[in-house]
Description:
CATH class of the domain at 79-172: Alpha Beta
Order of helices and strands: HHEEEEHEHEHH
Low-confidence stretches: 1-11
CATH architecture of the domain at 79-172: 2-Layer Sandwich
Number of helices: 6
CATH topology of the domain at 79-172: GMP Synthetase, Chain A, domain 3
Strand content: 15-25%
Largest sheet: 4 strands, mixed
Shape: globular
Amino acid sequence: MPATMRSVTAERGMDREQLRAAQGPLKERYRQAPETALVTLSANGSLDDQEVACSVQTGRALVRAGLHPATGGSGTLACSGDMLLEALVACAGVTLRSVATSLEIPAMGTVHAEGDLDFRGTLGVASDDEAPVGFRAIRLTFVLESEATDEELETLMKLTERYCVVFQTLAGGVPVTCQLRASGAPS
Length: 187
C-alpha cells in the first residue's frame, strides 16, 4: 500500500497499533478467562398506549418504531425491518473498518443493505409456504474506494463476513425464544 494512503488512513482515526493496543489486553483476558468474554446485550422498549408503536432506547437516542406503510402504518415511525437492516449496515461497516485497520488496507466508501419482504405473510393473508413472515433475502453491498489489491479486498470481505456479529447471526440463525410475563392490569 502506498505510504500516502497509510498516512491518510491513520489521520482519519484509529490506526493499526492503536487498535492492537485497545484489543490486545482484551484478547489476552479472554484467553485466560473465557467466561469474561460472555456479555449479554439487551434492548428495551415501551409500548405506546395511544398508537400502534413502541419506543426503543438505542443507547444514543430514543427510536419510535411502528407499522410499515405496507401494513397500515403512516411511515412516520421507524420500521423494525429497516432497523434490522440498519443494524446490519452498522455492524458490517464497523467490522470492515476494524479489519481494514488491522490489516492496514486502505478502504473508504459505503455499505448498503436491502431485504425483500412479502407483507402478505405479516398480515396473515397468505400461507406460510406462499409468503413466509420475515425477510426472504438480504443483500449486503460494500462500495469501496481503495488502492488495495484484489487479494487484499477478498481477504477484507472474507474476514468482515466472518467477524460481523449481525451478519453471522442472520446468516447462521440462532435459537430465539419468546415469552410473556403478565403482571396484571395497570393501575
